[in-house]
């Protein structure tokens, strides 16, 4: 480096190349018209409680019987079947949504949806789980929830919104920080 070259500060990864990451059918794990469809929505918030308008939220889950789709075409969206995977970019208010089904239990786990968040300032995605409030009895035997401190478990449980809706806000930092998993 010569004396004329300015030193530049380090940067986080980005800007992100968004081609094909968010896509129109991404939030539709199942079509909303299915009788067993539920809606999961929420916001991604930073440590100050401000919305993160450019995050990407992915979900992975079992179907309503607890089957994890691993067969060819299990992630294909044909407009009728369960896909097992969804992806949604956040809006200017940090909001995201998915049309999906409530998963069945897998193994000793209470029913849950695996959630992955990519956002500015993160060099790697963060992972968490969304559990359902009506499965409180199953939460007691869930291996993962069993190791989360009792005072933090509520950050992993969605709030019920009407008959077929759930709200799950994801706090990346701060007092209400969502519990994230290390792999």
TrEMBL record:
Name of this protein: Protocatechuate 3,4-dioxygenase subunit alpha
EC code: 1.13.11.3
PANTHER family xref list: DIOXYGENASE, PUTATIVE (AFU_ORTHOLOGUE AFUA_2G02910)-RELATED, PROTOCATECHUATE 3,4-DIOXYGENASE ALPHA CHAIN
GO molecular function ontology, one term from the record: ferric iron binding
Matches recorded under InterPro entries: Intradiol_dOase_C, Intradiol_dOase_core, Intradiol_RC_Dioxygenase, Protocat_dOase_a
Keywords: Dioxygenase, Oxidoreductase
Residue stretches making up the Intradiol ring-cleavage dioxygenases domain: 38-107
Record-linked Pfam families: Dioxygenase_C
Family stated for the protein in its record: Belongs to the intradiol ring-cleavage dioxygenase family.
Domain of life: Bacteria
Enzyme class: oxidoreductase
